[in-house]
């Protein structure tokens, strides 16, 4: 590992541990009564975790697409402060997953799973809000996201991310790799 890889490894590990904490805290907070002090504390920690994830993932992906990485960071910050946080989570996850895929920073199959799981959220959540999808169906969109986030978190902790520079032939971040 050279000196330039060290910060990326640190960002990846912090993001990985934060993802795991975020998942455990989120599931725990859903199991508690809404007005309990523990639930309030967990929600505060979830909000802080969203910001930490935004910053660390921004630092990892900013070379792949600075504007998209910044937009994804903004989405994670809005996730922490907005009442309809899930849609900001979904868009931020989609953008970060796309940048990870584009940069081949994690295994391609894992990155594609993140993109597809995020698209399900980006499409499914607004449909749920307007009443087209019942809550019982919406639970199924959580499964692909969990299938992405848990292995992704472990990958970040164990392997980190592959450092690459943007391809000069790729003029913008939306070009399919």
Walkthrough of the structure:
The chain has 177 residues and is mostly helical. The protein has one domain. Helices cover 73% and strands 0% of the residues. Helix 1 packs antiparallel against helix 2. It is globular, with a radius of gyration of 16 Å.
Descriptors:
73% helix, 7 helices, disordered C terminus, 177 residues, mainly alpha
Summed up:
Helix content is 73%, strand content 0%. The chain has 177 residues and is mainly α.
Annotation field: number of helices = 7
The main sheet comes to: none
Question: What percentage of amino acids are in beta strands?
Answer: under 5%
Helical residue percent?
over 70%
The succession of helices and strands, N to C, reads: HHHHHHH
* Alpha carbon gap, first and last residue: 26 Å
Which class best fits the helix and strand makeup?
A: mainly alpha
- Structure summary, number of beta strands: 0
Mean pLDDT: 87
Low-confidence stretches: 168-177
Number of domains: 1
The gross shape turns out to be globular
Tell me the radius of gyration. 16 Å
Walk me through the topology.
Elements: H1 5-31, H2 37-61, H3 66-81, H4 85-102, H5 108-129, H6 135-138, H7 142-158
